Amino acid sequence: MAAATGRYADVDGQDGRPLTGSKILVILILFFGMIFTVNGAMVYYAVTTFSGEVDPHPYEHGLAYNRDIATAEAQAARHWQVAAHITGASGTKSVEAIFRDRNGQALTGLVVIAKLEFATDMNRDRSLVLTEATPGAYRGRIAIANGEWTLVIDAKRDKKQVFRSRNRITIP
Fold first, then answer.
1. What is the DSSP string of 64-125?
2. DSSP run (H or E) holding 141
3. What contacts 134, CB < 8 A, 6 or more positions away?
4. Contact 109, 82 (CB under 8 A)
């Protein structure tokens, strides 16, 4: 109730203390301070966590879309037979990719890169260059955790991409 003196006395109605301008100022500062703090935390986590992007350069890949289609058609026309395996106990795993041509002959002299992409966190992605252990068999070792991964095998010859595959795998 407003007092006859013009002051808002006993507005809070609890203990008879008047609601003054300084109390309202403190209440407003606390209210907006809490909102800014929560918004700041949300902005921090939005910027520092998974962005949702699968490709760091989607625009450039969009421009090269026709080239990617031509590369995939050339890969299919080669009829290569490629098998990839990941083995090993927890911790370090062995990655092996075996390349054969359409006649079953070993493909040698390739530069093979295996990339393991974690489904929800790009910071956990790992890649390694596989070395040719025997003709047509490329191997390497990598430390990865168990779980759902995407195995990307890229093979190049004379700095030109000649093979690419993406497969979802589960490492138990």
1. THHHHHHHHHHHHHHT-EEEEEEE-SSEEEEEEEEEE-TTSPBP-S-EEEEEEEESS-GGG-
2. strand 137-144
3. 106
4. no
pTM assigned to the model: 0.67
Q: CA-CA distance, 149 to 84, in Å (whole number)?
A: 14
Residues 6+ apart with CB under 8 A from 92: 141, 142, 143
- Pull the structure tokens for residue 139: 């191997």
Residues near 9 by beta carbon (within 8 Å), at least 6 away in sequence:
1, 2, 3, 16, 18
Q: Per-10-residue mean pLDDT for the chain, 172 residues long?
A: 49 71 95 98 89 81 91 94 88 92 95 91 89 96 91 94 93 83
Main-chain dihedrals φ then ψ at residue 168, nearest 5 degrees: -80, 130
pLDDT of residue 3: 45
Beta bridge partners of 80: none
How far is it, in rounded angstroms, from Cα 154 to Cα 149? Answer: 16
Place of tokens 């390739």: 110
Q: Is residue 153 within 8 Å of residue 164, measured between CB atoms?
A: yes
> Of 118, 113, 122, 119, which Cα lies nearest the Cα of 152?
113
